[in-house]
Design goal:
The structure is a homodimer of 333-residue chains.
Chain A (H helix, E strand, L loop, with lengths): L5 E6 L8 H9 L4 E6 L14 H6 L4 E4 L10 H12 L3 E4 L9 H10 L3 E3 L18 E7 L6 H14 L3 E5 L3 H7 L13 H8 L7 E5 L11 H11 L3 E6 L17 H15 L4 E7 L6 H15 L3 E2 L1 H4 L2 H5 L5
Parallel strand pairs in A: 1-2, 1-3, 3-4, 4-5, 6-8, 6-9, 7-8, 9-10, 10-11
Helix pairs in contact in A: 1-6, 3-4, 7-8, 8-9
């Protein structure tokens, strides 16, 4: 686990979008986001106080998180100056960049000398077990999608917020780099060795209280030729009790696969349920999460009504209209 | 690719079973198996001439293959003496052991000094691409099973032999360590990073002649909670035109999962076809391969007849009764 709270390092972010990891932390774990550190020319601002390293130290910060994705994934010399100083001042560093902190000789040497930790969340830090398929206590929700990058992480985070607001026991379980940086821990599933994928998800979602819900971040799609094996491991390792079906209605083909069209929500429901039943006979599809970011409010509401009627499950855009409908639907599990 | 032909190193094998990799090479690629090298106390004999390193050199051998699995996977000092000498004499080394040749300081140093290659087939040697799902030329057969370790590799190898005997263009494509050592190349799929699994299978089975058949070695099972993601990647990366359904009738539970029973052959057919149709709408299940090693001849024949009638597909044990029925069935694709 990465020590919290964080100082969000935005570097010389060329635009707000490049700081989306920092924004995600601010949006979903505001209690971790004590401040931001911006270099000259930074075009992003996630709306927390600007701080020097000294101010962050005084505010109790434990880790400086690189909350920006720069072009090419490199770690520039301008950044290095601040990052080395952060290690010297006693902060750990955390990053989801393709270029690893540990591969930078200077950062690695200073971290060793100062006894600080470099968290490269793109690569697994744990020797995961082989999955054993044994039934675990507590309940689990998995978001599955008709395609990749369709809103599965946001769906789970929106549901977690709503469940916690209702006093329910709920924990978002990150399976990707952004989710891991947001929550401070998780499994970088796309970088796990094939034989250990399902085992890493069992490890991530262990026995828990009977009334506790894990909200497992989905990855890929069962219908996506490049990544379906990763999704399969989530279904069998996650042992879900409830599935949320995620869809983006305006997409014209599978992401990165121009000759593949998206499956229907019904086809996703049928296949995901069939596979989930191998490990959990009681699994149900409980609701539908529609990513309506490319639709007007009127179009979105009309589409949601149409889908509810057609599929017979509650449907919403949890980011736009709240996750209450999806959380209500957990009563049926 | 590993250079052929081979000298099969049997070391001090405690029993014939521990030399099954060497036996597999002798059985399936006899033209590669020029000789065997046995140390004092070796209890295995795969039926090829015993040779010294000098004799192997004279016979044209290029690579010494460790064809024995020793207890604990370690590389003993007794072995080292021969292996170092082999490198000095100009042979490459190949191994599927858990302990890697390259991690042995002495072997690594001598290999560097002599310019020889150490092939550790347990780990990938290629940066595989992300799968693109594009249709490839040529035809592909994939063996899928109701469980792991059920005869998928032998099914593909038996079919390859029968197809070549008929003058068909057929290539066994190895996806596991034993298969890679037998054929000299392939993808160690269980050790590939999650995101690249399907891409590694596309890489393994590229465009080919329209009348060429790849016989892809299966792994795991779509119904096996530990490894189903690996199997999924084979189905979507392999883009099969024909599926062979593999089953072992006497098994009482899924391998390593005592609380899971095996699915029916029909359930396997339905799920595997549904998934294969995502990437290849024309895929058909063409035949059934039954592993009858634990049955009498009479029981095996009765079972095969019953399965053919029930499922409506040709069924045989290709290792025991030949693969002709399965190859005949390819005419329907």
């Amino acid at each position: 686990m990465i020590k919290t709270p964080y100082l969000l390092f935005l570097g010389d972010a060329p635009d707000p979008l490049s700081a989306k990891v920092a924004q995600g932390i601010k949006d979903w774990r505001p209690e971790y986001a004590v401040g931001q550190l911006r270099l000259d020319g930074c075009k992003a601002d996630v709306g927390v106080p600007d701080m020097t390293l000294a101010q962050a130290k005084a505010a109790g910060v434990k880790t400086v998180v690189i909350g920006v994705a720069n072009r090419g994934g490199t770690i520039s010399q301008r950044w290095k100056k601040v990052l080395v100083q952060a290690l010297e001042e006693g902060f750990d560093l955390a990053s989801g960049l393709h270029n690893l902190l540990r591969d930078e000789e200077d950062l690695a040497a200073v971290a060793r000398a100062t006894g600080r930790t470099l968290h490269d969340v793109r690569i697994p830090s744990v020797p995961y077990p082989i999955a054993n398929g044994e039934k675990r206590r507590g309940k689990r929700i998995l978001a599955v999608g008709t395609d990749c990058s369709i809103g599965k992480m946001y769906t789970a985070l929106c549901m977690e917020r709503e469940m916690r607001a209702r006093g329910m026991k709920a924990t978002f379980r990150a399976t990707g780099q952004t989710g891991i940086l947001i929550t401070g821990g998780g499994v970088p599933l796309d970088a796990v060795i094939a034989d250990f994928m399902a085992g890493s998800i069992e490890y991530l979602t262990p026995d828990n209280d009977e009334d506790h819900w894990d909200l497992i971040e989905g990855q890929g799609s069962l219908f996506h030729a490049s990544y379906s094996g990763v999704t399969m491991a989530l279904v069998h390792g996650g042992q879900p009790d409830a599935l949320i079906l995620c869809h983006e209605p305006t997409r014209t083909h599978m992401r990165g696969l121009p000759s593949y069209s998206l499956p229907s929500i019904e086809a996703l429901r049928d296949l995901a349920l069939q596979l989930a039943h191998v490990v959990n006979a009681g699994c149900k599809a409980v609701g539908i999460s529609i990513n309506t970011q490319n639709m007007t409010d009127a179009d979105a509401r009309a589409y949601l009504a149409e889908v509810e009627t057609r599929v017979g499950l509650p449907a919403t855009d949890p980011f736009r209209y709240g996750a209450a409908k999806l959380v209500d639907a957990l009563d049926t599990v």
